[in-house]
Amino acid sequence: MTPVSASIGATVLGYPRIGPQRELKRALEDHWAGRITQDELHRVAADLRARTWRRLLDLGLDSVPSNTFSLYDQTLDAAALVGAVPERFATLGLDETATYFAMARGATAVAPLEMTKWFDTNYHYLVPEIGPQTTFRLAGDKPIAEYREARDQGIDTRPVLLGPATLLLLSKPSDDAPAGFRPIDRLDELVEIYVDLLGALAEAGASWVQLDEPAYVGDRSADEIAALRRAYDRLGGLTNRPKIFVASYFGDLGPALPALASAPVEALGVDLVAGSGATSLVDVAGLSEKTLVAGVVDGRNIWRSDLDAALAQLEQVRAVADDVAVSTSCSLLHVPYDVDGETKLDRRLKSWLAFAEQKVAEVATLARGLREGRGSITAALESTRAALADRAAAPGVVDERVRTRLGRVTSAELQRGDYATRRESQQAVLGLPPLPTTTIGSFPQTSDIRAARAAFTNGRIDEDEYTARMRAEIERVIRLQERLGLDVLVHGEPERNDMVQYFAEHFDGFAVTTNGWVQSYGSRCVRPPILFGDVSRPAPVTVDWATYAQSLTDRPVKGMLTGPVTILAWSFVRDDQPLGDTARQVALAIRDETVDLEQAGIRIIQVDEPALRELLPLRSADHDAYLTWSVDAFRLATSGVADSTQIHTHLCYSEFGDVVAAIDGLGADVTSIEAARSRMEILPDVAASGFARGIGPGVYDIHSPRVPDTDEIEVLLKAALEAVPADRLWANPDCGLKTRSYEQVEPALTAMVAAVHRVRP
Question: What kind of architecture, by CATH, is found in domain 23-393?
Fold first, then answer.
């Protein structure tokens, strides 16, 4: 039975696409390695789509989304669909799929598109490049083909498209664009491509289409909001089109809400989890005439919904509009598939959780309760109340020892000596040359490393054997770095499965999953740990590994830790206390580790905060409060060591100009940042801000398999030296090397060291 197309009813804004067993990841990597053909890859993709549509229908949705599947990234899909393929890729002479992957991953002598975070999530998207010369055209039929694919299976889906305004607001000007050009200036032209696309979808039989405009939950200018209204006046005014559902998520629409409410579209989606709730909808002209798609089930976290509270929100929304649909707050791309697959998770903790399948069931339950009354879902309401009460009372959720210690922290514990004094003291100990070379931390995780970890986890080898194998790998990595000529070494992190999960496995207050995989980008998947209770560190975590590595060499070896903000950002975090309080608890655990590393003789300690910008609230009015607690958490984690111990940090793909003052506020002695894909665009912001500590802009992109040559890295280093003096500049890759192979890493690091020797004063 197909859903009724006249009403949206119960739905979700999107769904995971990597496959319950990461089938897409494996197929992609097999294809890139030449083990399977394009046709075989596309067969895997088609099977995943079919299984998803059928499962969503079986779970009780009235409207099933399509075109939420992607081989790599939905923003890249949207750019390719409208012909926004930069010339350097179009001239490669590749077929459509190969060109698509070249844009994502690069090709020989051709750099990929820049990558950055999708709003305030840990998902990465490819940044389209748009210029005055970009020729928009309907260059493909993916949404139409997938709609027909589902219809042929008896399922009438709702195609999902990235909205035209958000597509342009997420884009960057192409290199040939003149100063002052903004991609959004080309919205009217792009909308005409969407006119053609909506017409094609209508002819294919689609009754609804979803256009996502999440860019408008952030700060937007009056002309950007006017452009949004103009776009939907044009699209809504078409006679040959499906009904239009404009979706927003990750916060409130703010001043964009009235613009969309008065536009000639049939439905509007609002995030009532991250937003301010149903009260924000009251007295907005035009809403009463639309279907309001209320996002009341959290699409980003894994806790069971409070069904009573969600139903109350829905009842408030029904006072605003007669037709109310029930949905997740955003796509379920950000959560794992099914909690029932977690056979090793504590049963009590498991009863508090809802992954994607459970969230779809919650949506269907709430829709029934709204439609038929609370009495129709009595059992579900009682079950949820019991789970919430059990969670609040469970051991480990509150640890008075942790809270007492945190309450005794003073402002003095967030301070170190002034930077000039620290720098002099550190140089006396380390004796580093100008423009020192290093890496970010991890080295390739070979099949032997993964096999040893799996054997240890499964009990096939004992701890002594596992330690011996990891030590052998550490020695190999140390010797390699010495041979390559690096100045500051790392131990390579062979013992770590993930930079957050590894610490979660050693801290109280966390649990880890077995199958809780979430897509980060392309084929890259992570398993975010679950932070359910007060956090503490029972025993040292990294000290033995770091001191063993240091014993092998006279060169300094960095101790490698993950910062408190990143541990929060890349975990599923408890929602029963302020995020800042949780961050400070994690910071105290990290502080204990930094102190122990220093006492063990480690003189450089890197505390990575790649997610600092990621968690920045989308509206500027909320920035100060976040930056205050996030900076304080980092300082609490790193200020327990002496001035002579050098503190490093690392930050990932971001719009650094938004947080450069906070980066300075962290007080790290050296900050490494990702800069290769953007070709050092960040450094003028850094220089203009007055940032005066050490900085290591990445000189090659580790997210692409291509290996840069010495000349390419030299160009980037010379660009960096125009903004940063050599005595404060470091050379390093963009990020850790875990996902790359030694065949890629060794020549790239060789080129990096050679380039440094060319430019080092």
Answer: Alpha-Beta Barrel (3.20)
